[in-house]
């Protein structure tokens, strides 16, 4: 059992503890709910892990963990993957010359809610996918595979995200406009603007943590240059938002406080 300590998270930072907690929960809890993975669900899982292995800016032992799991899954060519076999393959290996370790504790820092039912995993999942879209935009040619990360998120949410209502809402947004994303930069902005759409829909609702009201993000105090006014109406400066997202979700802004 984890003893919860008072944490003083800074909203302008991303915390490795949130990211690793989210990975642990998604891989070892959400993905192993079904007795076997097969078909589109197995394909979605393989895509998720290979995208993490490619783009997740983790600590060396976590990157080794993701890469070795990805390699293991690529070698699994049978149509069904039993949960027990997968669980065994997802165990940590501390003894190798290159340890492969994804911590098994769940510690929320930037994603910690004021009460247990708030925030945590869904907050971490958004954060991971923002980070992955930004990493993809920094690394490859802008027009190449624009949907590489978003389509993985769409599949993950559809086949694994435990909140079914969330999954339905997200799939509806994806079906409406995701296919029009034509570059990696647009993918970053698509996820940002649709996350804000979700924030607007949920503001004031009963899943909102009263200590963390749903905002249109980033708020002006975090990014003044992201906001402008056109004929007296609020508007976003999208190129400033893109610049902001690339800095906020960059490896240099990920802090190791509270990581195991
Ligand atoms: P979150 O919205 O989880 O955001 C996490 C962090 O991301 C914030 O603290 C902030 O630092 C940053 N952030 C906020 N907005 C943006 C943005 N626009 N762009 C980039 N970064 C941003 N809950 C429901 O009740 N109903 C739903 O239908 C629903 N659908 C969901 C769909 C998906 C795909 C996901 C991942 C979650 C969904 N949730 C839904 C959960 C909900 O969106 C929140 O994750 C949850 O309420 C926790 O909110 P939070 O305050 O931690 O902030």
Low-confidence stretches: none
Rg, Å, rounded: 18 Å
How many beta-strand segments?
6
SSE pattern:
EHEHHEHHHHHEEHE
Can you tag this structure with a few keywords?
single chain; 260 residues; mainly alpha; Four Helix Bundle (Hemerythrin (Met), subunit A); 9 helices; 6 strands; 50% helix; binds flavin-adenine dinucleotide
Provide the fold topology.
Layout: E1 14-15, H1 16-29, E2 36-38, H2 39-55, H3 60-75, E3 80-82, H4 83-89, H5 121-139, H6 148-159, H7 164-177, H8 184-202, E4 227-230, E5 233-236, H9 238-248, E6 254-255
Parallel strand pairs: 1-6
Antiparallel strand pairs: 2-3, 4-5
Helix pairs in contact: 1-5, 2-3, 2-6, 5-6, 5-8
The protein binds flavin-adenine dinucleotide (FAD).
Flavin-adenine dinucleotide is lined by residues 111, 119, 122-123, 125-127, 130, 157, 163, 165-166, 169-170, 192, 195-196, 198-199, 202, 207, 209, 212, 217.
Please provide a written account of the structure:
The chain has 9 helices and 6 strands; from the N terminus they run βαβααβαααααββαβ. By secondary structure, the protein is mainly α. The chain has 2 domains: 14-89, QSOX sulfhydryl oxidase domain (Four Helix Bundle (Hemerythrin (Met), subunit A)), CATH 1.20.120.1960; 121-255, Four Helix Bundle (Hemerythrin (Met), subunit A) (Up-down Bundle). The strands form 3 sheets. The protein has a two-stranded parallel sheet with strand order 1-6. A two-stranded antiparallel sheet has the order 2-3. Helix 5 packs antiparallel against helix 8. The chain starts with 13 loop residues before the first strand and ends in a 5-residue tail after the last strand. The model has no long low-confidence stretch (mean pLDDT 96). The structure holds flavin-adenine dinucleotide (FAD). The site of flavin-adenine dinucleotide has 24 residues, from helix 5, helix 7 and helix 8.
């Amino acid at each position: 059992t984890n003893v919860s300590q008072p944490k003083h998270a800074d909203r302008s930072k991303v915390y490795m503890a949130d990211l690793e907690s989210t990975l642990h929960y998604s891989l070892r809890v959400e993905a192993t709910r079904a007795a076997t993975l097969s078909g589109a669900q197995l394909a979605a899982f393989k895509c998720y892990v290979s995208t993490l292995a490619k783009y997740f800016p983790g600590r060396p032992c976590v990157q080794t963990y993701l890469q070795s799991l990805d390699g293991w899954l690529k070698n699994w060519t049978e149509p069904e993957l039993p949960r027990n076999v997968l669980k065994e393959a997802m165990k940590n290996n501390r003894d190798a010359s290159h340890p492969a370790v994804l911590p098994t504790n769940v510690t929320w820092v930037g994603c910690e809610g004021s009460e247990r039912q708030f925030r945590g995993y869904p907050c971490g999942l958004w954060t991971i996918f923002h980070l992955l879209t930004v990493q993809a935009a920094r690394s490859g040619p802008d027009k190449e595979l624009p949907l590489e990360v978003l389509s993985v998120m769409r599949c993950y949410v559809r086949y694994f995200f435990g909140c079914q209502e969330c999954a339905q809402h997200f799939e509806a947004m994806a079906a409406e406009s995701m296919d029009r994303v034509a570059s990696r930069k647009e993918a970053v902005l698509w996820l940002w603007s649709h996350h804000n759409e979700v924030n607007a829909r949920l503001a004031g609702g009963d899943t909102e943590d009263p200590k963390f009201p749903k905002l249109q993000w980033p708020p002006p105090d975090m990014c003044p240059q992201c906001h402008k006014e056109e004929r007296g109406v609020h508007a976003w400066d999208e190129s400033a938002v893109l610049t902001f997202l690339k800095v906020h979700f960059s490896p240099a802004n990920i802090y190791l406080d509270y990581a195991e």
